[in-house]
Structures are given as C-alpha cells and as structure tokens.
Design brief:
The chain is an alpha/beta fold. 47% of the residues lie in helices and 13% in strands.
Length: 658
C-alpha cells in the first residue's frame, strides 16, 4: 500500500476518456456530489483565520498525509422500479436512469473543489460514491484512485474519507463537547482519555466552538455552529479527505461564509483534500473555492477554476456576463449551452504537475478493532445521559407508574376475598390484571420518538465503524433494565398493597418481577417496530394495531376454545396471555384449597363452598403451576424482538448511504 501515498501519474487523456457504465443498481439513489482539490502549500506554517466573534491562532505543527483523489469515467445508473404485481411479459421494461455519465476529475490536497449544478444533477450521488457510501456489488475499483492507487472497496474509502451529510444527525440532549467526546471515544480507541480530551479541546478551538462547548446541540446554538459540530464529528479521527454535502444549505450568508472560511483554513493548514457540493455560492464564498466541477444531467460541463469558466463564457462562447452576476451564477442560466459545448473548448483538463514531494511511508491499515467492553461502556454512558436529560420521558414514565399504581389501587381498594356470597373478588382481580397489562404495555409508546431520533445517528456511526450494532443493542438493554425496574417498583408497590392481593412477600416479589418483564417486553416491541417504521405517525399506528391484536387474543375477551383455528396462532404469540396467566397463578395457587365463595343456609347453619382457588385456575385452563414457564416465554419474547431489531438494523446499516 506504500504506492497509494505517492503522487499519481495522471495525464489529461486518462482523466477525460469515456468508458462504459461502472455502476448499476435497481434501487433509487440520492443525489450525488463531488469535489476537487489542488496541490498542497508547503510554505505556510502559521496562519490566522476568523471564527464567529473570535480570532484563532492555529499552529501548523503536524500535517495530514496529502491525498490526491482521481475519479475516472465514473458512471452510475438506476433502474426505475415497476409495480411488483405487474407480471405482464409484454409490458416494457422499466427505463434506465443515468444519474452520472462518465464523470472525471482530480481533487488535490490543500484545495477546495466545489461540485455545482442544478438540483437532480447527481451531485449527492457522486459525493456518496467517493466517500464509500455505496454497496459493494455496485463498486468498481477502476473508477476511483487515491494517490494513484485504485480504491479496492468502499470500506477503504470510508477509512480515508470523512463525510458530512446535509442533515445534521446529532443527539440534541448532548452538549457540543460531549458530542465530540463520544465521537472521539468511538473513533480514537488507541488514544488515552487525556489525549482524547486534548484532541477535542483543540478541535473545538479549530472549529470556533469553545464558547458553546457546554451548550446542548439541540438548544441555543446557531445553525452554523450546529453545522460545525457535524463537521467536527467526522473530523475527529483527522481524515485526509473530507467531503461535505451542501455544508452551507439552510445557513444565512454570514454563517455560510464562516463555514467556508473554516474549510479553507483546514485545507491549507492540514493539507486536506476537501470536496463540497454547493448550489450557487455567493461572490465572497467563491474566493475560498479553488476549482469548480459543474454538472448538468449527470455530465461534466466544466472542470476548472472560476477564471477559466469566465474565459470560456466570454472568449469561447462569445457571451457577455451581466454586471450583477458572477461567472458561476451566469453559467447556471446558460447551463444547456455549456452542456452542448462540453466536448469542445469548454471542457477544462486537469494535468497533475510533477513535484518533488517526498514519498511518505504507507501507514499500516489499522483494522479498527471493536472492543466490545469499551464500546459498551461508552454507549451506556451516552444512553444514560440521553435518558436522564429527556425530562419528558423520565417524568412521563414516573408519573404513569405512580398515577397508574395509586389510581388502580384506589379504584380496587375494596376488593377482598368475600366471606360469603358475591364473586370473591375474582372478576375484579381478573379485570385489574387485564387493565394493568394494557396500561403497562401501551405506556412505552412515548419512547418511540427517541428511538427514531437515535436510529439515524446509529446508521451514521455504525456504518462508519464507530461501533457495532450489537454493542448498541446490548448497551440499550443494560441501561433500560434498571430504569424499567424502577418503573415496575413504582407501579407495583401501591397497586399491590392497596388492592390487597396475595399477602405473601414472595407473591409480591413475583408480581413485581412480572410487571418488570411486561415493560421489558413492551420496550423490545417498540424498539423493534421503531426499526421498521419510517416515521412517528406510521410507527405509532403500527404499535397500537399490534398491541390491540395481542390484547384481543389474550384469552380475556375470547377463550382459547372459541378462537377460530386460522387465528389460533395469535393466542400463542400474544404478549398479554403469558403475564395474565402468571398473575392469576401467583394470586390463587397458594389458596387452591381455600373457599372463595360459599353459600350459608340459615336454617341448617351450614356453609356450602361454591368457588375455590382451584376452580378459578381451572376456568382459565391453569391446572398446574406455569409461572416460571411463562417467565421463560416472556424473557424469550424480550430477547426475540431485540434480535429481530438487531437483524433489521444490521441490514439497514449495510445499505445506508448516510
């Protein structure tokens, strides 16, 4: 791999030759983007650059290994999907859509290359391919090279490239410093805690974020500061190549200028190769852009500097640029003319100059080993901070448990075992257990927005090798176990003793344990459904539908014998059935021989038993103690839904382009 660090030998023909399509896939692709950079400046060792409300003196002490990115004849196509039920053989095949068409350019270190073009021209797709956000089967190693060495896989590109998506996928309840620290812990495992702390402090100074270090990301920080946090997350491991998808989108002119100033300083001081996509940069932003790659309908219509673009428009096309517009803005208005003339004089060529740069020894490609225990510790810490700071979740779950426990206890407070007549409180207890199940299982829905918010962050971090999805799932389980156990205690204590259920302490402990398992099963179900739901509305609807179906087939409304055969499977997979049976056995197993309802004849002064604890259990088909069998099944449901969630998330991560 040593040769990969050398300056590639590329001539103008190799850059502009057209070849066949390199990529083809049957799924839709997002927009693409690409960037180009130029040779590093070796003379600058100290530079001042401005950040919002402060000026930072940056010492150029250590340079990142310089990389030249060469893209040669890169094409990307997709097949428009047809309706799956349309099996007509005479129906024409869905059309092939060309997203990119033989795109070629060279991006050098210490320069910024901006990919410009109208919406839908393939900018985002180009950027994601270069950063390795493409499926292995769609990757052609001949299309992209680093320092003259062909990139062998998307994984290699991910290791060398930092990619900042257009959306700021950050956890809002973490501070700026905590966000960067967690990223450092995931990406810089070889460093000590002190070294990571120093790295984050330096990075915050470089990004102009020191004054908001303790502010929440979702709080009172500006859009420009939030964008710089996103840049910092992907810069923490000091990648030599940095790609940014529309970093100025949604920012005001001042914030956009500050972001571009920051990128320009990073390119020069660290010899980084920076590629950005941008729509129509202002005149002040253009001074920080070295070269432009203008795309139109997936094809390159200009590849060169702003001056060469202006020269082509004025001297070669014979057009006059309006005074109120710069050359780039005017080129967007005459994009069709540029496209028609792309094969002639307007097509700028990159020729790599031979310089006397020293060949750097190839760094050994360190396989980032995922240390499970280290990942678990970091993820648990972050999970706990998010839960603790989600006041709505903490307050909602605490109040639900207390209000539910005391509320149900106050409603059923007079339910006692009758000493004659009545129903012995059997029907009331069964209703209490059924309602408690419904209440506990439905009370976990409020965690859905948190899971959906974290899912996108998980996609980004796991796809970049920060940690394994399995580590995320295990850490989530470790943190939620004690949290949900406290919820179970808050609910169980008031409802159990106010209602006057089985007075045995072991029975109370088992009741609390079952309540804990109920909320754990519900948490796993919500986690699983959040992995398959596209948004909150559909996720909430799906959860309500599934829980409603489970409750219907719990055996409370329809006995097993009355369930139609084609629906009997729902009786066995219902999350309500097993805890309901466990609570009934726990309540009545120790009083199987006791008379709950009896009839007293006044004349003979005799008591006739009408209902015993055993009769109650038999009416539900519970002729033996199935408590621990049901516990095993509930634990199985808890694990099963988490495993399903893990499988879905692993598949999503493998396909993500974030």
């Amino acid at each position: 791999m040593a040769s990969c660090f050398q300056q590639p030998d590329v001539n103008e023909d190799s850059v502009n030759d057209d070849t066949t399509v390199l990529f083809s896939t049957s799924s839709d692709s997002p927009e693409a983007e690409s960037f180009t950079l130029s040779p590093p400046s070796s003379s600058s060792t100290f530079q001042l650059y401005r950040f919002p409300s402060q000026t930072v003196a940056h010492q150029y002490s250590s340079k990142t290994a310089a990389y030249t990115v060469s893209v040669r004849n890169l094409s990307y196509t997709i097949h428009q999907s047809s309706w799956p039920w349309n099996k007509n053989p005479n129906e024409p095949k869905p059309p092939i859509i060309n997203i990119l068409k033989s795109v070629s350019f060279v991006a050098r270190s210490s320069e910024i290359l901006a990919v410009v073009g109208p919406s839908g021209t393939g900018k985002s797709t180009l950027l994601r391919i270069i950063s390795g956000r493409v499926r292995d089967q769609d990757f052609d190693p001949k299309s992209i090279s680093l320092n003259g060495c062909a990139a062998t896989s998307p994984t290699q590109l991910k290791k060398k490239c930092g990619f900042v998506a257009q959306e700021d996928d950050l956890l809002p309840l973490l501070t700026v410093k905590e966000t960067l620290m967690f990223s450092a812990k995931f990406r810089l495992k070889e460093m000590t805690s002190q070294e990571r702390e120093e790295r984050v402090e330096i990075l915050m100074q470089e990004l102009g974020l020191a004054h908001v270090a303790d502010s929440f990301v979702g709080g009172r920080i500006s859009g420009g500061e939030r964008k710089r946090v996103s840049i910092g997350v992907d810069m923490i491991h000091d990648p030599p190549i940095l790609l940014l998808d529309e970093p100025t989108s949604g920012l005001d002119s001042t914030s956009a200028l500050q972001v571009m100033e920051l990128l320009s300083s990073m390119a020069i001081l660290k010899q980084r190769t920076i590629l950005v996509s941008i729509h129509q940069p202002s005149y002040r932003i253009l001074q920080y852009i070295t070269n432009l790659l203008i795309l139109s309908r997936g094809s390159v219509v200009h590849n060169g500097s702003l001056e060469s673009l202006e020269d082509a428009i004025v001297n070669k096309l014979g057009l006059k640029i309006p005074v109120q517009l710069n050359a780039l803005e005017f080129s967007m208005e005459i994009i069709s003319t540029l496209e028609e003339d792309k094969y002639s004089s307007l097509k700028a060529r990159y020729v790599l100059s031979d310089n006397d740069r020293k060949k750097e020894d190839a760094e050994a490609e360190l396989m980032q080993s995922n240390y499970l225990m280290c990942q678990l510790e970091i993820l648990c810490e972050r999970f706990w901070k998010v839960i603790y700071r989600t006041k709505q979740l903490l307050l909602a779950r605490t109040m639900q448990a207390l209000v539910g426990g005391f509320g149900l206890g106050s409603v059923y407070i007079k339910v006692r075992n009758n000493d004659g007549g009545g129903g012995g409180g059997v029907a009331e207890r069964l209703g209490l257990f059924a309602f408690s199940l419904s209440f506990l299982l439905s009370s976990t829905v409020e965690a859905l927005p948190i899971y959906l918010q974290e899912r996108r962050v998980l996609m980004k971090e796991a796809s970049r090798g920060a940690y394994r999805v399995s580590s995320y799932m295990i850490a989530n389980t470790i943190v939620f176990l004690p949290f949900l156990f406290s919820v179970a205690i808050l609910f169980s204590v008031p409802v159990y003793w106010l209602v006057g259920l089985n007075p045995s302490f072991l029975a109370f402990a088992f009741f609390t344990f079952v309540v804990w398992l109920i909320v754990l099963m519900a948490s796993s179900l919500v986690l699983f459904l959040s992995a398959v739901s596209p948004d909150f509305i559909s996720g909430n609807s799906l959860i309500c539908t599934v829980l409603g179906a489970f409750f219907l087939f719990s055996g409370y409304f329809i006995p097993k014998e009355c369930v139609p055969k084609y629906w009997i499977f729902m009786y066995y997979v219902s999350l309500y059935r097993y805890p309901l049976d466990s609570l009934l056995v726990n309540e009545y197993w120790s009083v199987r021989g006791d008379c709950l309802v009896y009839h007293q004849q006044q004349q003979q002064q005799q008591h006739y038993c009408l209902l015993t604890g055993n009769d109650v259990l038999k009416s539900r088909g519970l002729e033996r103690d199935t408590r621990w069998l049901n516990v095993g099944i509930m634990v199985g449901f808890f694990v099963f839904y988490r495993v399903l969630c893990w499988i879905i998330l692993v598949r999503r991560v493998s396909k993500t382009t974030i």
